[in-house]
């Protein structure tokens, strides 16, 4: 049904007001920079994985990340870890606050984006498309590389001068000298 003109004008002007009362036509996604994003490679038989990243809010306004989505998995959820009765558990959360001029790290043991039911294994060298959805409805599309950071036996591959996600991780061991 076609809306009467007057009603359309009211809708249009309230939309304008909504935009004006927020940031001046800026959309959140443009104010958020994402760095160090990666998806953890899955171990054989593992259907779930996680995405980590650093979100930097360069604006004077606080925002929040309210959801994430992607075709790579059946469900994509925002999660955090909580300590409960001495155990670390994951919980779904409905937002991650991004303070003005602030930085929030999604990292192991903390907030993360959970990928549930991956349609195919996440292999090192692949990339996964994810969209971040902010509280104003704006979206940021990401192409996130898969990195092999699972605790596999033996060495973890670390390039020299790379990230320092695991500063205390053991260096590759020289098995010839082990008895
Ligand atoms: Cu989780």
Helices and strands, in order, run as HHEEEEEEEEEE
Helix content: 10-25%
Here the CATH topology of the domain at 31-149 equals Immunoglobulin-like
Strand content: 35-45%
Contiguous helical run count: 2
- Spans where pLDDT lies below 50 across 5 or more residues: 152-179
Strand pairing plus helix content: what structural class? Answer: mainly beta
**Nearest-angstrom radius of gyration?**
21 Å
Largest sheet: 10 strands, mixed
Shape: globular
Rounded to the nearest angstrom, the distance between the terminal CA atoms is 81 Å
How does CATH name the architecture of the domain at 31-149? Sandwich
What's the name of the CATH homologous superfamily of the domain at 31-149?
PCu(A)C copper chaperone
Report what the structure shows.
There is one protein chain. With 179 residues, this protein is mainly beta. It has a domain at 31-149: Immunoglobulin-like (Sandwich). It is built from two helices and ten strands; from the N terminus they run H-H-E-E-E-E-E-E-E-E-E-E. It has helices spanning 5-21, 28-31, and strands at residues 32-40, 49-57, 63-69, 73-84, 87-92, 96-98, 102-106, 112-118, 127-134, 139-147. Strands 1, 2, 3, 4, 5, 6, 7, 8, 9 and 10 form a ten-stranded mixed sheet that branches. Strand 9 and strand 10 form a beta hairpin. The radius of gyration is 21 Å and the shape is globular. The chain starts with a helix and ends in a 32-residue tail after the last strand. Residues 79, 90, 112, 114 line the site of copper (II) ion (CU).
